[in-house]
Inverse folding.
């Protein structure tokens, strides 16, 4: 079992959950604040949701052996 792929899936799922939940502690963090200022809060939420879905997709493809 590829633990790196599982870690990528978990990180992506966490990012998607934080974007959907609109949690202040995540969206107001120092690193997210840059994107919140640049894109507005809803734009940053959409961006983090897309990034999270991308991470989940890459992790699943790694687990399936489609990419290496």
């Amino acid at each position: 079992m590829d633990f790196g792929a599982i870690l990528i899936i978990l990180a992506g799922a966490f990012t998607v959950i934080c974007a959907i939940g609109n949690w202040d502690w995540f969206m107001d963090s120092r690193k997210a604040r840059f994107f919140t200022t640049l894109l507005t809060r809803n734009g940053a939420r959409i961006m983090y949701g897309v990034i999270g879905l991308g991470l989940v997709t890459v992790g699943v493809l790694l687990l399936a052996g489609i990419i290496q």
